[in-house]
User: Which sequence fits this backbone?
């Protein structure tokens, strides 16, 4: 059997490769890289203070607990009034190496109690203030 080879354009086989599926795959990969790249590169470099002998510096901390009824505990000792608390804050703020203040409000404490304590700490010159015990606020 003989095969006829024609020179007409209508009967020739297509020899061009269809690149549309390859472009689709490349676009999907590009979108995946764009989405995942910020997660991978979201690093924060912290330079922690170091003592001259090469060991990491440890700072003192003050545990300030605020109970649900407004009772304030300074490292476990009950504070009678906000004026007494402010005196403690002033004494600690005047130190050259100011300690960290770890505020631990009870979940049921009124916002007003916490705001008064934080305002007093700020007015007294406390600079290292943070919240501790936040796991109690996670809703389950």
Assistant:
């Amino acid at each position: 059997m003989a095969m006829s080879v024609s020179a007409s354009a209508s009967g020739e086989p297509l020899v061009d490769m269809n690149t549309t599926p390859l472009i689709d795959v490349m676009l999907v990969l590009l979108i995946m890289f764009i989405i995942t790249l910020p997660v991978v590169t979201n690093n924060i470099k912290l330079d922690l203070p170091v003592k001259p002998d090469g060991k990491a510096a440890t700072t003192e901390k003050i545990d300030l607990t605020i109970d649900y009824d407004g009772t304030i505990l300074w490292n476990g000792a009950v504070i009678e009034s906000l004026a007494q608390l402010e005196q403690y804050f002033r004494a600690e703020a005047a130190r050259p190496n100011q300690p960290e203040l770890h505020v631990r409000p009870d979940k049921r404490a009124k916002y007003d109690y916490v705001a008064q304590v934080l305002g007093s700490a700020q007015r007294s010159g406390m600079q290292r203030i943070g919240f501790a015990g936040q796991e109690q606020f996670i809703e389950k």
